[in-house]
Specification:
Keywords: DNA replication, DNA-directed DNA polymerase, Nucleotidyltransferase, Transferase
Largest sheet: 6 strands, mixed
InterPro entries: DNA_pol3_alpha_NTPase_dom, DNA_pol3_finger, DnaE2/DnaE/PolC, DNAPol_HHH, PHP_dom, Pol/histidinol_Pase-like
Radius of gyration: 36 Å
CATH architecture of the largest domain: Alpha-Beta Barrel
Strand order of the largest sheet: 1-2-3-4-5-6
Pfam families: DNA_pol3_alpha, DNA_pol3_finger, HHH_6, PHP
Number of helices: 39
CATH topology of the largest domain: TIM Barrel
Number of strands: 20
CATH superfamily of the largest domain: Metal-dependent hydrolases
Helix content: 40-55%
Protein name: DNA-directed DNA polymerase
Catalytic activity: DNA(n) + a 2'-deoxyribonucleoside 5'-triphosphate = DNA(n+1) + diphosphate
Shape: globular
């Protein structure tokens, strides 16, 4: 028996905000100190399981895996350290940890069966022992009870303080002798050295503001320090060897597998997949009118062969199955995402909607026989229905076979500075000043207090602050995951792995991303408003009116095209065919943006240098610029005879700037090209061209798939504008400023946006008459729950009938809000009368009076009505233009205002004026102006000098020109202002 020197009680930073020790730090220290093992006992979790095993292998340091869990035993809260001493025990450790993580208050008795498969240590450093050290019989009673319940139970000695050595350790050693128990070294290690104690205290305070720093050292001990700590306990390190022996886990060697898809009549998966794919191809070709099927059949068979060789038949069948579930259950599925759109098999199975042969997409970019990696079919669903698909998968394959994944939010230097500054008792003003100086990089080096703050903050960098859930990914496994992966409770009644996505993928688990896309929800809602009378597949991709809308940059609400920068590019490009959209999505990113102007010039006829006839054909669609990764792969294939699978590996290396491989491959590329009778000088030029663009090349498969979504939305906006804008408004009901812009856009296109109607309005904007009807949910002060109850009570015959039905739902204040929102106008009373009669307690008394007659009252002033409407809706829908404005425009015979015009002449109201001073010291103004439509007017210095006296008038005549620098249509520049007689 040998001495194994180390502590069994080390917690990493995965003990969320209870330790500052990164796993790498722990193993580096153990290697430097020549310690015999590392034991990780994080606080009720196994988040570090995979990374600890990898580091153990890297540093060649034996690892003992465990965790700490608090159980209530005989009425006392006891911290137990729980370990696995072999592979079989590791399964039990994972199962127990999953159980306790999912059920934090689980009784000790419910866990005894699993605990008896593990090693359990009661460490001396806990409240129960400290509180009862003068009543050793109570401590003895508890330890004896644990000993009777647990097969492999031991005591832990911390020996961290003199008090512990003098008072606690003797008691426990005596009990150990009486109970025939071994004791083990459990000095708690939670930070690197004494300099890091401040960081440790701050981290704990972030977790618990009531945390009290203890005068106890918990730093990583050297080997000599450990030996000295336990010099009075002669056999303690021999006991480690006796209890654990030589622990060695083979967890990293485990192979994971997908569930076997339940095929009809138990046909083998690859045979079933082959039949499904070929049947799907027949339907696809029939629907598209393609007669020449040889290319399709050959490619389909080649893809199926690769899929089978790599063992992914079941994977494709599983994805096919849940996509089919979605499509047959009124759940829209995106046309594709990422490189999976390059698979003909995926297209034939209905997983994607992009024909990879028609759009020149490459299967090898997705699945490469020469690059052993997991397939990655990411799928988009409407964000409100994504969980329905995950539920289907969970029900089909079992709760213990489908899990989400954990993410970690880490502390950063910047985000931690305020927490640290509070510990240093700095004032708020001082904190703000230091942070501002640090952010700008101008921190005074002589400011010791500030320097200390930044130094301590830097030590916090990368420590996990909290856990979250991966936004899209799930793991699907053939094996029961409860003994394979530590689990915790996740969202929506689905378990969550305690390991993050990269750990799970490295272990060989298959991740599938189920992404919720708001734009698919929008498309689905538009189709419903149109009563599903059109299909996306029926939309022609060469619709002239759609491209007119795009060329005018009228792209508000259009997927991935609506940013200001993208609009500017669209105006210059003037897209006229589908490939323009594909290229836009690939080019409008940091990096390739520098080629946009060249692309646009060439697109409109500028000449450019040609390289070689074969290469020019590949780059012809993008005018000699390498825009797509697939183009690089094809150049390697066509010009130098590479296999596409080989070309993809080289493309990756070049894009990652692997200099050795770039130089090595350059020589090989030229050599292979020359063998094909190519010119060496030209080959070198082409390779240099590839190298220049490889870092910027984008996945064409993804760009094509997402171009479909962008085009569909543009088509729907063009031909079904009322439904389009209704849905877009409904998605942004709570964003008043943006909603106002959308209302303006609708009005400018000739639609009336009607105020809420108590009998007709629902929870969303809906097409109505010659325009759009606003929902009850846009009324400030009427929440969603109240709006739902009102909708349930609709319709209302009269004001009195309304008050009777809503008596238990609304109060008089709510009714007043509905009045000012114009929702009760349907009852034929003006606002003054509605307000006069809104007393709920008097409702219905008139039925007992034969001569009862309601008093007619004069309506509230226009400006009051207008102000109240803005108050409850955020802007005006009804009270846009008063009688004076109507009369003035008619008198001066001015045509109705249209924002389609580049220049306008109209009379309206000045609602607000903001005066600013330019850098040159000149005054200018920004005016909010209304003539039924709200305008934002800019008055530059020269005009301001001429017209500033008129800006105090309410009604003025203006002449203005559209501001071409702004995307919003209601922005104009003042040319002239005149006074008008009212």
């Amino acid at each position: 028996m040998t001495n194994l020197i180390g502590s069994l009680y080390t917690q990493s930073s995965y003990s969320i905000l209870k330790s500052t020790l990164h796993l790498e730090t722990i193993f580096k220290h153990a290697k430097q100190e020549n310690l015999d093992f590392v034991a990780i006992t994080d606080d009720n979790n196994l988040h570090g399981l995979y990374k600890a095993l990898v580091l153990s292998k890297k540093y060649q340091i034996p690892l003992i895996l465990g965790f700490q869990k608090t159980f209530k035993v005989l009425g006392y809260d006891l911290d137990l350290l729980i370990y696995a001493q072999n592979d079989e025990a590791l399964k039990s450790l994972i199962e127990l940890n999953s159980l306790t993580a999912r059920t934090p208050d689980i009784p000790f008795e419910s866990c005894v069966q699993l605990l008896n498969k593990l090693i359990i240590v009661l460490p001396s450093t806990q409240s129960f022992i400290y509180q009862h050290y003068e009543m050793s019989e109570r401590i003895y009673e508890v330890i004896s009870s644990l000993h009777k319940s647990l097969k492999n139970f031991y005591l832990g000695l911390g020996n961290a303080t003199d008090f512990e050595v003098d008072k606690i350790t003797p008691i426990l050693k005596k009990i150990a002798l009486n109970e025939d128990l071994k004791y083990l070294p459990t000095y708690q290690q939670s930070y690197e050295d004494e300099e890091n104690k401040t960081t440790y205290d701050i981290v704990n305070t972030i977790k618990d503001s009531q945390f009290k720093s203890l005068n106890v050292s918990m730093h990583l001990l050297s080997k000599n320090e450990l030996v000295k700590k336990y010099e009075q306990e002669k056999n303690i390190f021999k006991n480690v060897d006796a209890v654990f022996g030589r622990v060695n886990y083979t967890y990293l060697d485990n192979t994971q597998s997908l569930p076997v898809f339940p095929t009809k009549d138990n046909v083998e998966s690859h045979i079933y997949l082959y039949a499904l794919a070929h049947k799907g191809l027949e339907k696809r070709l029939e629907n598209s009118g393609v007669r020449k099927s040889t290319d399709y059949i050959q490619r389909l068979n080649e893809e199926l062969e690769v899929i089978h060789q790599m063992g992914y038949d079941d994977y494709f069948l599983i994805v096919y199955d849940f996509v089919r579930f979605a499509k047959t259950n009124d759940i829209l599925v995106g046309p594709g995402r990422g490189s999976a759109a390059g698979s003909l098999v995926a297209y034939c199975l209905g997983i994607t909607e992009v024909d990879p042969i028609q759009y020149d997409l490459l299967f090898e970019r997705f699945l490469n026989i020469d690059r052993k990696s997991m397939p990655d079919i990411d799928l988009d669903f409407p964000d409100v229905k994504r969980d329905l698909v995950i539920d289907y998968v969970k029900e089909k394959y079992g709760l213990n076979h489908v899990v989400t994944m954990t993410t970690f939010t880490n502390l950063t230097t910047k985000t931690s500075m305020r927490d640290i500054a509070r510990q240093m008792n700095l004032s708020q003003e001082r904190i703000n000043a230091i942070i501002a100086s640090h952010t700008k990089g101008i921190l005074d080096e002589s400011d010791r207090e500030a320097q200390k703050l930044v130094k301590v903050a830097s030590t916090i960098e990368g420590i996990p602050r909290q856990t979250g859930t991966h936004p899209a990914g799930i793991i699907l496994s053939k094996q029961d995951l409860t003994t394979l992966v530590p689990l915790m409770n996740g969202p929506k009644d689905i378990y969550q792995s305690q390991l993050e996505a990269s750990d799970l993928e490295s272990l060989g688990f298959l991740k599938i991303d189920f992404l919720g896309l708001k734009n698919l929800t929008m498309i689905e809602d538009i189709l419903k408003l149109e009563q599903n009378k059109l299909k996306l597949s029926d939309m022609p991709l060469d619709d002239k009116k759609t491209f007119e809308l795009l060329s005018n940059a009228d792209v508000e609400g259009v997927f991935q095209l609506e940013s200001q920068g993208m609009r500017n590019v669209i105006r210059k490009l003037r897209p006229s065919h589908f490939e323009d959209i594909v290229a836009l999505l690939a080019l409008f990113r940091p990096g390739p943006m520098q080629f946009i102007d060249d692309y646009i010039k060439r697109r409109h006829g500028d000449t450019y240098e040609k390289l070689d006839s074969d290469i020019d054909e590949i780059l012809k669609p993008t005018y000699g610029i390498i825009v797509y990764q697939e183009q690089i792969m094809k150049i390697f294939q066509v010009y130098a005879g590479y296999k596409l699978s080989e070309a993809d590996i080289i493309r990756r290396a070049i894009s990652k700037k692997n200099r050795d491989m770039i130089d090595r491959e350059k020589a090989r590329f030229i050599e292979k090209s020359v063998r094909l009778n190519r010119d060496a000088e030209t080959a070198e030029k082409i390779y240099n061209h590839i190298e220049k663009f490889a870092d910027y090349g984008f996945n064409r498969s993804h760009s094509v798939a997402y171009a479909f979504i962008a085009y569909y939305m543009a088509y729907l906006k063009t031909h079904y504008y009322a439904s389009f804008i209704s849905v877009l408004m409904s998605q942004n009901t709570s964003n008043t400023a943006y909603l106002k812009e959308l209302v303006l856009d609708a009005q400018n296109k000739g639609l009336v946006v009607y105020p809420p109607n108590i009998n007709l309005s629902k929870l969303d904007f809906i097409p109505y008459k010659s325009g759009i009807l606003a929902p009850l949910t846009m009324i400030k002060g009427i929440g969603l729950t109240t709006a739902k109850k009102i909708v349930e009570l609709q319709p209302f015959d009269s004001y009195d009938h309304f008050k009777e039905k809503v008596f238990k739902v609304l109060n008089e204040k709510s009714i007043e809000i509905l009045i000012h929102a114009n929702a009760l106008d349907v009852f034929g009373l003006n606002h003054k009368e509605l307000l006069d009669q809104n007393n709920l307690n008097q409702t219905g008394f008139e039925q007992f009076l034969d001569d009862y007659k309601k008093t007619r009252l004069e309506e509230l002033p226009f400006n009051t009505l207008k102000e109240k409407e803005i108050e409850v809706l955020g802007f005006n829908l009804k009270y846009l233009k008063d009688e004076v404005l109507i009369r003035l425009n008619e008198t001066h015979k001015l045509k109705p205002l249209s924002l389609k015009e580049q220049s306008i002449r109209t009379i309206g109201m000045i609602e607000s004026v903001k005066i600013i001073t330019t850098k040159k010291g000149d005054e200018m103004a920004f005016i909010t102006f209304s003539n039924g439509i709200s305008l934002d007017l800019t008055v530059f210095p020269n005009q301001y000098k001429s017209y500033k006296e008129l800006l105090s008038d309410t009604y003025v005549y203006i002449e203005a020109t559209k501001d071409q620098t702004q995307a919003v249509e209601n922005k104009y520049i003042i040319n002239k202002i005149k006074k008008v007689k009212v």
